[in-house]
Amino acid sequence: QLNKYVKCKTCSGEGTAPGTHKRTCSRCGGSGVITQVRKTMLGQMQTQSPCPDCNGTGSVIDTPCSDCHGTGKVKSRVKIEVNIPAGVDNDSVIPIRGQGEPGENNGPNGDLYVVIKVKPHEIFQRNGSDIRLEIPISFDQAALGDEIVVPTLDGKIQYKVPAGTQPGTTFRLKGKGIRNIRTGRPGDMYVTVTVEVPTKLNSAQKKAVRTMAEHLKEGSCYKKKQSFSDKVKKFFE
Q1: Residue 193 burial by CB count (10 A; 0-12/13-18/19+): exposed, middle or buried?
Q2: Is the pLDDT score of 219 beyond 80?
Q3: Which of 2, 24, 103, 129 could form a disulfide linkage to 30, CB 3.0–4.6 angstroms apart?
């Protein structure tokens, strides 16, 4: 919905009261301009200016329309249906022919240009035709692997997270992005998993975590941690 000028229905855009007509301006003879010739030291100089009687239109309205007051257009709130094509992005422009405002002197309507602004999504981030998504998983899901539910623009899909997945690992889902408005080809979805560390553990949960930690120390589960510790130790030697 928008407010714009539309052609006056009472006078059909002519600007004259029903039953009356425009008359040719007697001052300019319908040309809309006044030609003046002045004598100067260099000879005659000719100038043209809009006719003050008809404001350059070439015609005069003696009895203007009571609704538009002779302008031929009135302000109105209109509702226009706009088809939004798949793949539009911020600042995409959709032209709608003939839905602009009326032209001067009952001329044809101009065009309406709709500039698109896309609202941010709650979970998806857009990068051109690609979509990025962060999904939090638990420590046990990352360590043991699990099948998780991934939301896409086409609905939910199941995805197998492999055992030993590290925080910040990004998976690519081919063709699950946004369809390119020019090529028609869909982009991809990039899913980054973040490992959520539990907080506010009760006593039983803390005991379980400590027990797990003791068992993990027995093997070489934390290779990166051990490598970093070795580098630090060597640095201070």
Answers
A1: buried
A2: no
A3: 24
